[in-house]
Amino acid sequence: MLVATAALIRTRMRSDGQFADDMLRVTNAPEQALLEQRLSRMVSTYKKARQSGDVAGTAVWLHTLRALAAPELRVLGRQLWEQLERGQPYAQRALRGIEVLNGTPLPLGAQSACDFIPDDLDPIELAIRRTPQNEIT
Prior knowledge:
The chain has one domain. It is mainly α. It is 66% helix and 0% strand. Helix 1 (2-15) crosses helix 4 (74-102), helix 2 packs antiparallel against helix 3 (52-69) and helix 3 runs antiparallel to helix 4. It is globular.
């Protein structure tokens, strides 16, 4: 459900021109900091409205941007995406449930957005580091 919610939030923001794809890479662009502020305000708004699903989905992108902006947080960002990757196989079913519950069609690109992982936070690097170097049988 978290992967589906995060995908929906990003898809809607992209279609509104508020979340450019190039913000999801290692950069020091001022636009990235502005997006981070916007997401932080959204989290606060959702918290006040007691919309916990939207809080969590928005927090995915907020913490992703923070990890991309700060080298010392990058490993934590990879760990976040490693956990989110585990939920990706179930995201399509969750999207269908959200669509039925809301009674509105999904935004264009929502389904493919569930499979997205930011290149600079791809958890494959974590898996490679965790593999013992001398383990050849």
